[in-house]
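User: Predict the structure for this protein chain, please.
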Amino acid sequence: MLVEYAEYPISGRGAAEISASVERAVAAGELRPGQSLPPMRELAGLLGVNPNTVAAAYRVLRERGVIETAGRRGSRVRAKPATTGREQIRVDVPDGVRDMAAGNPDPALLPALAGVFAEAAAQADRDPVLYGADPEEPDLVRRARADLDADGVPAGPVAVASGSLDAIERVLAAHLKPGDTVAVEDPGWGSLLDLIPALGLRTVPVGVDDDGPLPDDVRAALGAGAHALIVTDRAQNPTGAALAADRARALREILAAHPGTLLIEDDHGHRIVDLPLHPLAGTTRSWAFVRSAAKAYGPDLRLAVLTGDAVTLDRVRGRQRLGPGWVSRLTQRAVARLWSSGAVDTRAVAAVYAERRDALISALAERGVPAYGRSGLNVWVPVPDETGVVARLLHAGWAVAPGARFRMSAPPGVRVTVAALMPGEAPGLAEVIALAVRPGVGRHSG
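Assistant: Here is the predicted structure, written as structure tokens:
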């Protein structure tokens, strides 16, 4: 049976069918963020099913982060439903417009891959990896563990995942259940903000400044019962924050008072950032530390290494065995060869990205526009109106990312990926941003 409600036919006889029908509508934009759903008894009557069936469907939708229930006001689509994904809040970049929105590293700074994959393939021809083999490449694990030791990350087993988000998802699933709360940076990584409600978890925002998560916000979140905290150590997306020594010390003290917290650290800026690491790992009983190869060696490698306490890593490996089994040992061998060959001059790459960030931030400061970007590929520019700024910049030939992709309760802003910005281009881009942020302010305004 089909029911016309809010111009969308909700269908199904079972809870799974009804919830899937609503999810399809949200994903297609036919049910919009904030739009009300029918009261459960009303929809049950129209569909000819038991009200408990509709209640079960709505419960599934809440756990997946698609809808929310506000007491007598009923159920409605979340303002940022997990089904739609924040990636849909993006700018389509037309031909002739510089893309400063995508968040990619500069391809010119990525290493050549043909040689290392050829070597890895030749080794695979001599010694094929078959079912039952060790899921981790010993050389990759050895090199990863040596780097972690050098940076003060506590001892622990090493596993390999298909990128940072895959690793984080596996760690969250290893410990949390639907309804648990995760404290996350705000503004923060849009894909992570999508993932958490998709797992049936709830998010609580933690403010960020140049030195990392704000201690008072972290203290409040953990004091209110947050089960997990996710921190970006360096190159925070989208603000470029990097955890400073004093800030790390303050956060360790807070975490020590909440030893049951699941702590996850994301160090995706490894090998493209020249700032020292100040890890929090080991402060709580359950922890994981994740490093991705994406920014330094290429996003398509889909590889991250993670370490953590023995229980967490055992659960992650066990669940991985029941899914993909392992990350391609061919890819692991290629990445190990990239690390050992010094294919990326990490200090030089970090210096290039720092020069490009600093050039834009300085040029904006000269025009009275504050901006942030202590590390990594991005600069965060607070703005009064994201939509207007993005549109004016697009018209001027520059595409930037709207801050709505990264925010929960943080003030509006735009993210500018400066990875491929040449220093000589910074003044021109800063001028355009200044005019977009405050029309009439720019070179001629003094």
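Residues 1-6, 442-446 have pLDDT under 50 and may be disordered.
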